[in-house]
Amino acid sequence: MSTSSVTGDLDAWRALPALQQPDWDDPAEVRAVTAELAAQPPLVFAGECELLKGRLAEVTRGEAFVLQGGDCAETFAGSTADAVRNKLKTLLQMAVVLTYAASVPVVKIGRMAGQFAKPRSKPVETRGGVELPAYRGDAVNGFDFTEESRRNDPQRLLKAYHCSAVTLNLCRAFTKGGYADLRQVHAWNQDFVAQSPAGRRYEQVAGEIDRALTFMKACGANPDEFHGVEFYSSHEALLLEYERALTRIDSLSGRPYDVSAHFLWLGERTRQLDGAHVEFLRHIRNPIGVKLGPTTSADDALALIERLNPEGEPGRLTFITRMGAGKIRDALPPLIEKVHRSGAPIAWVCDPMHGNTFEAPSGHKTRRLDAVLDEVAGFFEVHRALGTHPGGIHIEFTGDDVTECVGGGRPIVEDDLHQRYETACDPRLNRGQSLDLAFMVAELYRETR
Ligand code: PEP
Ligand code: CO
Fold first, then answer.
1. 119 touches ligand 1 (CB under 6 Å)
2. Could you list the residue range(s) of the whole structural domain that residue 406 is in?
3. 150-159 as b/e, with b when 16 or more CB fall inside 10 Å?
4. Is the CB–ligand 1 distance for residue 72 below 6 Å?
5. Which of ligand 1's atoms lies nearest the C-alpha of 426?
């Protein structure tokens, strides 16, 4: 295929309906911003995307497990060294628990370094009789409830790129520069261990890992092999102008990659078969995902496979199901059965967050850890019954001690929610709740094997 037809394909989405795109006031400013983005260096490389595709192919074969997570909405103000380190640390701790307790390789993907745009169920928000445009993520407008802040500003796309770059740079440094060394398992827990049941439980696992490492060293293994970890970035591919501007033709393969992140997914609200988002994702070669809610039919899933991975490339397509704890046991089996019968290689990942959101009496949007755990348990039950592979989890969490979801080993109740409710969008698990979840997933995984 010639380069010009490749780039033509990359713009085919422009002729189709694109949901959830911001109305920008000044098209000329958007053109100037996207031209500037198109001249920026890539954040990720095609070879890295292919490496991740290979890891996800292992997931489709039942040989590895995905741990994908981070904020619902990253913010510019939250792109600090401390916040990024805490998130990464929590992800590494969860991954260690899963790798050790479930004895499975864990593919670590941050919902990080680019998760700056949000789809909204309503285009406006009303507070005290005042109606303003909804917050669409820091890449589009501001969280503050004022007219000025809620104005869509294309310059924010550039800031989203730069915040993604600094975040990813820090993640790369932490994961390759010694911080993620398995011999540091205790160090990640230092500020945490005494305070919580999850921290104490983690400390036990870390002690066992220490002994295993000493044993391996004594046997002649090279401990430097544990120096770094593979870490990948991901976000929802929502703002098509941004994603298009960051799509490049790889000089080695001649194929297009969206270099804004290793992995891109389509949300439940923008996965229409004939819509612009599916059309755009069809043409990039990154590994991609699609969120599937409880109304998805098996034929919808097959049609998405036909559109997004017609050649059946293993690792190319991940389905991230978000059914709700009360629905997963009924809604998931028909999808898996039919897809499995078709022979299509799919990584099945469970998002136990987005089907379990409710409003507490205080008005806070929240989730119960019990419901999250129950959806994950349902996910494992369904896969066990069908003999298929529960391929991973996709969660919203933060490394900070927030009070946004209720429950956990050191329980948060509805009356606590106001104490540290800091999310810019959906409620996130805090560090203790995330570790509670990791321990439970590890147990379920072990039982399934
Ligand atoms: C999200 O992941 O934050 C989100 C909006 O999810 P979904 O598309 O599944 O509703
Ligand atoms: Co969310």
1. yes
2. 3-180+228-448
3. bebbbebbbe
4. yes
5. 3
Could you tell me the distance, in angstroms and rounded to a whole number, from the CA of residue 192 to the centre of ligand 1? 30
* Residue nearest atom 6 of ligand 1, based on CA coordinates: 267
Task: Indicate whether 186 belongs to any domain.
Answer: no
Residue 209, in any domain of the structure: no
Give the C-alpha separation, 165 to 295, whole Å. Answer: 36
Report yes or no on whether pTM surpasses 0.90: yes
Please give the pLDDT value at position 3.
64
Write down the pLDDT at residue 187.
86
> How many folded domains does the chain comprise?
1
* Digit-coded pLDDT (tens) for 214-226: 998 899 988 788 8
What are the tokens at 439? 């321990």
pLDDT (tens digit per residue) in 398-415: 999 999 999 998 899 999
Pocket test for ligand 1, best of 239, 318, 322 (most atoms within 8 A of CB): 322
Relative to the CA of 266, which ligand 1 atom is closest? 8
Spatial CA neighbour of 69 closest among 105, 99, 93, 44: 93
Residue with tokens 């999250």: 372
For 205-263, the pLDDT digits (tens) are 889 998 998 998 899 988 788 888 999 999 999 999 999 999 999 999 999 999 999 99
Is 322's C-beta closer than 6 angstroms to any atom of ligand 1? Answer: yes
Q: Is 271 in the pocket of ligand 1 (CB under 6 A)?
A: no
CA of 346 to the centre of ligand 2 (A): 23
- DSSP string of 313-370, one letter each residue: -TTSEEEEE---TTTHHHHHHHHHHHHHHHT---EEEE--STTSEEE-TTS-EEEBHH
Ligand 1 atom closest to the CA of 72, numbered from 1: 3
Q: Residue 338 falls within a domain, yes or no?
A: yes
Q: Report yes or no on 191 lying in a domain.
A: no
Which residue's CA is the nearest one to ligand 1's atom 3?
Answer: 72
Q: Is the pLDDT of residue 4 over 80?
A: no
Instruction: Residue 32: give its domain's CATH number.
Output: 3.20.20.70
